């Protein structure tokens, strides 16, 4: 037994490591005490079976049918304020697009895409309305999205705080873009009614 080869088996991935290794060379997990080669092979096989079962359980959970219960995602005060601003911007942009329909075209004969600007206003307003709902009612929208997605879950996966914060960054970007579009609408209306 003196010449028995000792190894350290990673409890997470089952990889054999040198008996002197502190962390797994594959995944970085802290290693336990070194053990004999036969014991290590048995342990590695057991870990591999466990990992396969976990993978199978995850795959089954993703395809086990639509989530029944809506999740409750937190709505921070910042998110509420941002959602209200987005709602106001959406309404103003929609009203601007409606007014443009009845405005005389100030770009007649100047090769300006007036109709496309109106259509773009309605499309951007539609996107903003959806994002506003996602901002103010994230749990409802998230659950609805997953319900109609091609993946099915036994439990609705909850987005991380990082994901929710990155959503707010996207909401701010679209809100600024919508405000820019409102400025364009106002400029067109000004040209239409003043003839300048």
Your description of this structure?
This protein is mostly helical. The chain has two domains: 6-62; 77-194, no CATH class. It is 61% helix and 5% strand. The protein is built from five helices and three strands. It has helices at residues 37-62, 77-102, 114-136, 138-147, 161-194; strands spanning 6-9, 16-18, 35-36. The chain has a three-stranded antiparallel beta sheet with strand order 2-1-3, with helices on one face. A hairpin with a 6-residue loop joins strand 1 (6-9) and strand 2 (16-18). Helix 2 (77-102) packs antiparallel against helix 3. It is elongated and about 95 Å long. The model has no long low-confidence stretch (mean pLDDT 80).
Count of domains: 2
Helix content bin: 55-70%
Total number of helical segments? 5
Strand order of the largest sheet: 2-1-3
Q: Could you state the order of secondary-structure elements as H and E? A: EEEHHHHH
Low-confidence stretches: none
Radius of gyration: 29 Å
The N- to C-terminal Cα distance equals: 98 Å
What composes the largest sheet? Answer: 3 strands, antiparallel
**How many beta-strand segments?**
3
Short description:
The protein is mainly alpha-helical and 196 residues long. It has five helices and three strands, in the order βββααααα.
Descriptive key words:
single chain, 196 residues, mainly alpha, 2 domains, 3-stranded antiparallel β-sheet
Question: Any chance you could write out the topology, listing elements then pairs?
Answer:
Blueprint: E1 6-9, E2 16-18, E3 35-36, H1 37-62, H2 77-102, H3 114-136, H4 138-147, H5 161-194
Antiparallel strand pairs: 1-2, 1-3
Helix pairs in contact: 2-3, 2-5, 3-4, 3-5
